[in-house]
Amino acid sequence: MRRGILLTLFFSITLALTGCATPSHDNDQSWYFSVVAPQHYKVWVEHLEFEKSGTRHWRMPMGNVECCWKGPNGPLGTGGRMSPFPNIIGIQWFSFAEQKFYQRLIELPENLPDLMRRKVEEKTSTGTSMGPRDQLVIGLAPGGEVVLWIMNQPGSEIEVARMQANPIKGDASWYKTRTQSYLKENDDYLKKHGIPTTGW
């Protein structure tokens, strides 16, 4: 609860600093997001909040995130629609592999919606067409690394930002049962490969 209040406080301060919002120009475009983690390095997203300064602040329930950082199905994971397009994202999560909590306030680049509107090739069941990179993917890796991609389908992604989250205090025992289940599936992999905190 206290960590959730801290995240909301970050939003309040940032909102005060950013002032009034500029008029929205994204009514002609639908925007989507998803959250991913590398295989074998599952996380639990405790808080995910979006802010369009001066317009809307909303929260999205997430919970378990374990796929897909790369490969034929990535980067793409669980998510939903963003309406309107936010200029700030706040995210807080627990890393099962590290038994650590992280938090990050993300200020999105002002030109990101324009960059996402640019149409690129996409393949559908009826053939090839052109479409915008309307999906923002938030990647959460060990060590608290956060990577942002934009895409319309796996294979079209481009990285637009990379940043470091802040480790925060938390009680890992809250996730004792989920951790036991996680280790039952991944302990052998972790013992063999470790927990890389760079190179993602």
From TrEMBL:
Going by the UniProt record, its keywords in alphabetical order are: Signal
Q: Which residues form the signal peptide?
A: 1-21
Q: Does the keyword Signal apply?
A: yes
Q: One short Pfam family name for this protein? A: DUF2931
* Protein name according to UniProt: DUF2931 family protein
Q: What is the lineage of its organism?
A: Bacteria, Pseudomonadati, Pseudomonadota, Gammaproteobacteria, Pseudomonadales
